[in-house]
Structure formats: structure tokens, C-alpha cells
Amino acid sequence: MPRFSPRLAIAALSCVALVLSAVLLLTAAGASTRTRVVSDCVHPHYKPHRFIVACGDGSYYLIHLRWRHWGRHYAYATGTARANDCTPSCAQGTFHSYAVRFKLTRRGHCAARNDLEYQHYSIHYPHRRPGSPPDSSRAVYAGCN
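RE: above sequence
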């Protein structure tokens, strides 16, 4: 029967500690463990309460987002869409509110920010919808395509 060796036990524990330290350092230096989404047209956020859809003029955005799920494969929220009717022009238009279901998918690595980010979204209107909303399903890249 093999005999217990304190030196061998200390060496084994040292190796385990070294490996764990390396893993922790790589995790800290690598991508964030939280998946984020570019919600303000520039910066990635974790579980944002607001999401700008029309980055050019801000005429369509989501507010009061309540996240029901935020996971590895998708994120899902309910909230309110605010859409400008642009009547008689977008500068003089009126914003209207619509209930929405908002889903984020296609999690991927953003090399530019060394981050995990959802790269696609879809918007569903359970009741009424704007007259001509922007695409209800599109990519969200902001520098990470």
C-alpha cells in the first residue's frame, strides 16, 4: 500500500492552487461573464431599461423594459414602445405608446470590446402597433460585425 507523503500532498495542492489562479486571472482578463446589448446606439448595457431603435433621429424607442429572462441563448422583456407619427413632419409629430414584447438573440463575442453581446433583436406588438414601425427584427452591431 502506498505511504502518505506530506511533500507530495503539498506539491499537489500547490498545483491545484496554481491552476485555479490561472483560470481566475484568464476569466478576469477575458470577456465579461454577463452578456450585454448595445441599447443606446453606442454602449453595451446589461438589462437596460431603455432601448433606442431609431438611432438616427430617436423617433422610435422602447422604455420601461422589464426583463423576464436573461440567459445564454436569449433575453426577453416586456415594455412600452414610443413611436413618433411624424405628422405633419417628424419635427412636429406626436409620440404614441404601444405595448411590446422584446427579445434579444444571437449571443456572440464582440472582439472590439472583448465582450459577449446579443447581436439581434425582435419586437412583437401583442395589441396595436404603430402605422409603419421600423423593422421589427434586425441586427444590433454597433461596431461588432
